[in-house]
What does this fold into?
Amino acid sequence: MKLEEAKEEFIQAWGALGSSWGINRTMSSIHALLMANNEPLSTEDIMAALQISRGNANMNTRALIEWGLVKKHRIAGDRKEFFVAGKDVWEMARQIAKERRKRELNPVIESLENLKDIEENSEEAESFKKRINDLHDFTVEISGLVDKFTRNDRNWFYRSLLKLLG
Amino acid sequence: MKLEEAKEEFIQAWGALGSSWGINRTMSSIHALLMANNEPLSTEDIMAALQISRGNANMNTRALIEWGLVKKHRIAGDRKEFFVAGKDVWEMARQIAKERRKRELNPVIESLENLKDIEENSEEAESFKKRINDLHDFTVEISGLVDKFTRNDRNWFYRSLLKLLG
DNA sequence: TTTATCTTTCACTATTTATTGAAAGTTTAA
DNA sequence: TTAAACTTTCAATAAATAGTGAAAGATAAA
It folds into this structure.
């Protein structure tokens, strides 16, 4: 397989993966494009490579920066901004986990906490309360686990998991 | 807070969570509705509660059954099908993890394996190969962890997790 | 069988989400 | 300052996704 061909397939696959996890296709494609290329790319490079508009390229590089997956890169003597993806896969995973915890897990926990005080005591109400409680405990635990994962260095977490699951 | 009010909020929150994880809103709403109700509900009940069409209700209950999150339930003397959600949160999480591993992780691993044989040896090609390799190793490891998680019984995993977190 | 009850399918429509591109905004060098 | 080089915004539009409902397909009691 040729390198360019492989890059294209990778961009394709990564884009598809993103969209089945609720991340928009362009955002994951840009991420893949930057991962596939060592040198920093400009907005124009991205527009050309993925055949997308300036606005789209801008919005999504910005989103990737917010997610901590991509960094701006200045090249001396050039006024344009360039972009590079982080090189470490575990660091990337940590960044994604951290971001999703903040955006999705935390709101759910909050929401479940609000549902805890139901003034009824019928059998039905008790059973509902129990489920909400279980769900709450579960999400709190997962959230804690993700927190540990995002805070500690990769080796610590990895060793623990191996111990746990090996 | 009143029970009915709480149920509605829960359905709302669960639906929103689903859609930020690439699962359609109706599917997660039906799941939430069934979780919130102890008794089995019929398609008609679901249609009425969520104000959706028969086709939609049917498609999404079917999807939930495929995912292993909901079971059919026959009530003696009634020809209608009824549906119930599983009651155990950990079992639910296992089922979701299992399903997503199959649908999303496995295809990515396969795709990354295909990208491994690049005929070029330039510095650029080598660097790309390394990244693909790292990504491959990472996904294989995660996939293994998920597999362990979905295979073992809850108490075992739960105890280990507590040990890890504590 | 026949018929009533219930389930599934799918072409069409509605809704949501992503993308464009041109205009407004910003920065920097002269 | 001014103006060129570049970035950002956002209303309009396109594309993707989800939902509808009526018709066709099952199933089972009579």
